[in-house]
Design a protein that fits this description.
The complex is a heterodimer. By secondary structure, chain A is an all-alpha fold. Chain A has two domains: 75 residues, no CATH class; 70 residues, no CATH class. Chain A is built from six helices and no strands. The two termini of chain A are 31 Å apart. Chain B is an all-alpha fold. Chain B has one domain. Chain B has six helices and no strands. In chain B, helix 5 runs antiparallel to helix 6. Chain B is globular and about 50 Å long. The chains are: A mainly alpha, B mainly alpha. At the A-B interface, helix 1, helix 2, helix 3, helix 4 and helix 5 of A face helix 1, helix 2, helix 3, helix 4 and helix 5 of B.
C-alpha cells in the first residue's frame, strides 16, 4: 500500500514539474537545443533548479542511512563508461533532438489526447522492449552489451 | 508567469519528487528505468511502485488543467515520419544507455556519478547536433 502511495505522489509531483518546466512543449525543448539559432535558455533554469534541490536533498537523505519505508537504497552499481552507455546516449540524443520529447514529457503529453503522442509513446516503448529483449539473451549480442 | 520563473518552479518540483522517492523508497526516479521495469521480458518485483509512479505522472496534467486551467503541453513540431523513428531511438537509446534526462541528467549528476556525467554530456551534444542539422543544414 505504501508503495502505491509513494509512487502516486512522487509521480504526480514529477509530472507537475514537467508541465511547469516547459519540457512538455517540444518547441521549447528544440529551441533550447538550437544553440546556433534563437537560443532559449529556459531549460537551463529547469536543470539548475532540479539539480540544486536534488544535490542538497540526496545529501540529507543518504545521511539517514536508509530510506524511510524500505530496507536499503537501490542505487546503480555500474561505474563503467563503456560502449553501451555512449552509444545509448548518442541514440537517445538524436531521438530527443528530432522530436523534442524525452520519456517523461512524452508520457505527460498523452493527456493532450493527440494521436501523434500516442504513436510516439508506442514507438518509444517498442524501442525499450527491443533493447531489453536483446540484453536478456546476451548470446545475440557482441560481448559487453549484455550488461550495464 | 515569466517562462524562466515557471522553469525554476518546474525544475524544483522535479528535484523535490526525485528526493522524495529516494527518501521514502530508496529508488532512483529515472523515467526510462521506471517504465523499463514494467516491460518485457521481465516485470520488476517493485512493479506496483513503478505503475503508481506512471499513474501519478499521467494524472498530473489532467489535475493541473482542472485546477489552474493550463497544463504546459505543447504541440508536436514534426510529423509521423519523424516522430516514429525518433520515438524508437529514444526508447532504444535510453534502454541501452541505462537512463534518460531524469535518470542520468538529474539523479545521476546529483550523485556525482561520472557515468551519468558522460551520458548527459553525450546526449546533450547529440541532440544539439541533430537540431543544428535539422534547422540549419537541411
Amino acid at each position: 500500500m505504501s508503495e502505491i502511495l509513494v509512487g502516486l505522489i512522487s509521480g504526480f509531483i514529477f509530472g507537475l514539474g514537467l508541465c511547469l518546466s516547459g519540457l512538455a512543449d517540444p518547441s521549447v525543448v528544440q529551441s533550447f537545443l538550437d544553440i546556433a539559432g534563437a537560443w532559449n535558455p529556459a531549460l537551463l533554469f529547469v536543470m539548475g533548479a532540479g539539480l540544486t534541490v536534488t544535490l542538497i536533498g540526496y545529501r540529507l537523505v543518504f545521511a539517514q542511512g536508509r530510506p524511510l519505508w524500505s530496507q536499503r537504497f537501490s542505487l546503480p552499481t555500474s561505474t563503467a563508461i563503456d560502449a553501451p552507455l555512449i552509444s545509448g546516449a548518442v541514440i537517445f540524443g538524436v531521438g530527443w533532438g528530432l522530436a523534442g520529447y524525452c520519456p517523461g514529457p512524452a508520457l505527460v503529453s498523452l493527456a493532450s489526447g493527440r494521436m501523434e503522442v500516442f504513436v510516439f509513446v508506442t514507438a518509444m516503448v517498442t524501442g525499450m522492449i527491443a533493447v531489453q529483449w536483446m540484453r536478456a539473451s546476451p548470446a545475440a549480442l557482441p560481448t559487453g552489451l549484455g550488461q550495464g | 508567469m515569466h517562462p524562466f520563473l515557471s522553469a525554476v518552479i518546474g525544475g524544483a518540483l522535479i528535484g523535490f519528487s526525485v528526493v522524495l522517492l529516494m527518501f521514502l523508497s530508496g529508488r532512483i526516479a529515472g523515467i526510462s528505468g521506471i517504465v523499463g521495469g514494467l516491460l518485457p521480458p521481465k516485470l520488476a518485483d517493485d512493479w506496483r511502485l513503478r505503475f503508481a509512479f506512471i499513474a501519478g505522472l499521467l494524472l498530473s496534467p489532467l489535475i493541473l488543467t482542472a485546477v489552474a486551467g493550463f497544463n504546459g503541453i505543447g504541440a508536436p513540431t514534426v510529423g509521423f515520419a519523424i516522430l516514429i523513428p525518433a520515438g524508437f531511438l529514444i526508447g532504444a537509446g535510453s534502454a541501452l544507455g541505462n537512463g534518460c534526462t531524469s535518470g542520468h541528467g538529474i539523479c545521476g549528476l546529483a550523485r556525482l556519478s561520472p557515468r551519468s556525467a558522460v551520458a548527459t554530456m553525450t546526449f546533450m551534444a547529440a541532440a544539439a547536433v541533430t537540431v543544428f542539422v535539422m534547422r540549419h543544414v537541411i
